[in-house]
Amino acid sequence: MWLFLFLVGQRIAELFIAHFNKKWMLKHGGVEVESSHYFLFIVLHTSFFFAVFFEWFLVRDGILWLSPLLVSLFLILQGLRVWCITSLGRKWNTKIIVIPDEPLIDYGPYKFVKHPNYIIVFFELLVIPLLFQAYVTAIIFPIMHLLVLMIRLPAEERALGGKF
After folding, report:
1. CB of 81 within 8 A of CB of 120?
2. Which of 41, 57, 102, 124 shows a CA-CA span of 20 to 30 A to 143?
3. What's this model's pTM, rounded to 2 decimal places?
4. What pLDDT sits at residue 164?
């Protein structure tokens, strides 16, 4: 149960970080764009935790058999997640906010991949349910993430290209 509570707490903390970063970005000339699809992320991630909990706690009686491989993958993903957030610093957000004329971040994981956080989230949506033996959730939610990204990535590309 401690791992599940940690994950929920982590996501709530990230929403607070995003909120404070949004305020800072708007104060420094940032513009929030293409927000009409944001609710899809809320629905996806909220239902993800309900699905993991339902499948693990209610179907599997809360039994948790931690696999060393899955725990290792989880820890690597957490490190990569922190690397993404710290690389963007005050510019990290769950929403699309652009500060005009600011250069794009091109260091940290962004030196190698344009949208590393979405890759990491894809694998989290696979690995986290597997940690909880929530196999149906591990199949459904990475696919749902890819579907939401079909809307999100073009929106981000337009915003980053100044076409908003």
Report:
1. yes
2. 57
3. 0.92
4. 56
